[in-house]
Every structure is written in structure tokens, then in C-alpha cells.
Design brief:
This protein is of the alpha/beta class. Helix content is about 35%, strand content about 15%. The protein has twelve helices and eleven strands. The strands form two sheets. Strands 1, 2, 3, 4, 7, 8, 9, 10 and 11 form a nine-stranded mixed beta sheet that branches. Strands 5-6 form a two-stranded antiparallel sheet. Helix 5 crosses helix 6.
Length: about 325
């Protein structure tokens, strides 16, 4: 009986070890919901065309992904994290504190933040100031900051429709939220005297802004159900759902690939992924996946990812970013400041 138990235990241990080895053949990736469709496309192609299994990708948001990435080195931490914004110096320092000391930054291209609604409506073009006044927790009224009193768009500007202010958007862990706060909220408010020349980014919590989680596809679904509402998400999701959604021009500029790539569209941002070089020996698939992602086949002017919403960077920038990845350049804190 003891021999049987011992044999069973050994067999279980062998199976367990094999399971771990098999799992580490797969690169583990977390991070941005905006980068997720691009990373998933590359992962599927990678699994179909190489000897490695398809990487496991989890959409956790940029901030959530970087937290997991910076937790340390080892099997219980991700190999790569996606981000729809650049890593913050504070995140880099946390990585270092936890022993993650060799990171390569991969810049993949551009995306815009869309402010979109159901195409059951007429297009509603807005300014960053109007969006700010609709969503800020406190707004200036008669020279004083008060809790946001606006419930309809027409109360902000009578040229806007008398529709309820309802905006589905990302949570605080999202890179899209970070970029929205910087490029819309901060940019609009720093010109307003009531805020003392400083950007104000607090978003109201009285129900006008609805935290819709990290899955941008859920926001798209909500807009089909509530045709009065708007959604905030990456341009790629607007392009993928062009048959049901329309995007608003912001400050007179429509969200188009050319306008986003040139920076004319005021709410455009860069996208990245970060590689934990200390995992290279244990996860050989990691570099092979990263090299495929950075190839012209994926991120070039005629690359596959352009077809699902990626805005390619200029050729010289792509080549420089590709060399950084191929050379496994180590990111330094000074690079982020």
C-alpha cells in the first residue's frame, strides 16, 4: 500500500513538473486593453507559425499590468506587459525594488482615444472643454468651484443636444484613463482661472461617468443598449465597430488614422510593451514573440496590425524601436523623465 502511494506521489510530482515546464513554454502577457487586440493578433500568428505555443494574454489595464510585471522575477510573474502609455518613473522604481532590473521598452505605434456613440444618433462634435465640463467632479460656476451641476449636454452649451450626460469609460488602472485625464481633463482645465493654472483631473462619481471596466468591448455593447450615452476607448475599437458607432470630432479634428499619426488629433497617444529580460532563459518564446511583434509584417505601413486599427509610426521611428528590441536595450530611469 505504501509502495502504491509512493509511486502515485512520484507520478503526480512528475506530472506537476511537466505541467510547469509546459506552461513556461508559453509566454505570459498582461496589460492594456487597448493594446490587447494587437497583442492577441500577434500571439495567434506566433502560435500558428512557430514551434512555440500561443502566448497567454490577460487584459488587466496598463496600470494593473505594470503592477503585476513589477512584482518580481519568477514563474508567478508575467514576462511582458502591454501599455497604452509609457511606464511611469514610479513604476520603474517599484520594479527595481522588487528585483526587476533588466527591462526592454518596445514602442509599437500610435492610437487615438475615441469619444464615440451609437450611429443611431447624429454626429455630435465637441471640444475638450465641453467634455471636461461634462465630466469634472467640480466645475467653475460664477467664479467658484462647485460640485458638477450639469445633467444634460445642452446645459454646458446650448448648441449641444438636450441629452443626458452619460459616459462609459475606463477605470483608474487603465492607460486609456491616464491618457484621457492628461490629454483632455488636464489640457482643458489648465487654461481655466478657477483651477489656478494647474490641471484638474478629478472625474465626477455621481453616475454621469460610468466605470465600465477594462474590457472596451463591453463599452461598445453598452452603447448599443443606451443610445444616449458616449464611450471612451481606443480608436481601434471605433474602427472595428464602424458599422454601429460614430466618433466625435474633438476641437474640430476627426479621429482618423492620418490625424492620429500626425498628432493633429488632440487625443492621440503612443503604445508600448515591456519585456522582462530576466525571464529570457526560462521563457525562450518571449523574445521570438517580441521580434515578430516588432516586424514590418506587423507594425509596418502595410502591416497586419494597421488593418485592425494600429496607426504605424514613421519608418525611422519603427526601425529605431525594432533595434532596441533586437539588441535587448535596457531601459533606464533617465529615459522616462
Amino acid at each position: 500500500m505504501n509502495r502504491i502511494l509512493k509511486t502515485t506521489a512520484i507520478a503526480a510530482a512528475v506530472i506537476g513538473v511537466a505541467g510547469v515546464a509546459q506552461a513556461r513554454e508559453q509566454a505570459r502577457i498582461v496589460g492594456s486593453s487597448t493594446v490587447y487586440p494587437f497583442a492577441s493578433y500577434v500571439a495567434e500568428e506566433f502560435g500558428a507559425t512557430t514551434e512555440y505555443p500561443t502566448p497567454v494574454i490577460e487584459s488587466t489595464g496598463s496600470g494593473g499590468g505594470l503592477r503585476l510585471f513589477c512584482n518580481g522575477v519568477g514563474d508567478d510573474t508575467p514576462d511582458i506587459t502591454n501599455a497604452s502609455r509609457r511606464m511611469k518613473p514610479s513604476e520603474f522604481e517599484r520594479c527595481e525594488e522588487n528585483g526587476v532590473t533588466d527591462i526592454t521598452e518596445a514602442f509599437i505605434g500610435y492610437d487615438g482615444i475615441a469619444f464615440a456613440q451609437s450611429n443611431a444618433n447624429e454626429a455630435m462634435d465637441v471640444t475638450r472643454e465641453q467634455i471636461f465640463l461634462a465630466l469634472a467632479a467640480q466645475v467653475p460656476v460664477d467664479g467658484e468651484l462647485v460640485d458638477n451641476p450639469y445633467t444634460q449636454w445642452s446645459e454646458i452649451d446650448d448648441a449641444l443636444p438636450a441629452r443626458e450626460i452619460a459616459v462609459y469609460g475606463p477605470p483608474t488602472t487603465s492607460g486609456t484613463r491616464d491618457a484621457f485625464e492628461e490629454l483632455v481633463m488636464e489640457a482643458a482645465s489648465e487654461e481655466m482661472d478657477a483651477y489656478g493654472g494647474e490641471g484638474y483631473t478629478d472625474i465626477r462619481t455621481d453616475g454621469a461617468f460610468i466605470d465600465a471596466g477594462e474590457n472596451d468591448n463591453l463599452i461598445v455593447q453598452r452603447l448599443a443598449e443606451n443610445t444616449d450615452a458616449f464611450g471612451i476607448f481606443g480608436y481601434s475599437f471605433l474602427e472595428e465597430n464602424a458599422d454601429t458607432l460614430i466618433g466625435s470630432s474633438i476641437d474640430g479634428v476627426a479621429p482618423t488614422p492620418d490625424a492620429i499619426g500626425s498628432g493633429e488629433y488632440p487625443v492621440s497617444r503612443s503604445m508600448f510593451f515591456y519585456i522582462k529580460n530576466q525571464h529570457a532563459d526560462e521563457v525562450p518564446a518571449m523574445y521570438a514573440y517580441a521580434d515578430l511583434f516588432m516586424s514590418e509584417t506587423m507594425i509596418g505601413d502595410l502591416g497586419y496590425l494597421k488593418g485592425i486599427g494600429l496607426i504605424p509610426a514613421p519608418a525611422e521611428m519603427r526601425e529605431e524601436a525594432r533595434q532596441d528590441v533586437e539588441n535587448r536595450e535596457t531601459l533606464e530611469l533617465a529615459d522616462l523623465k
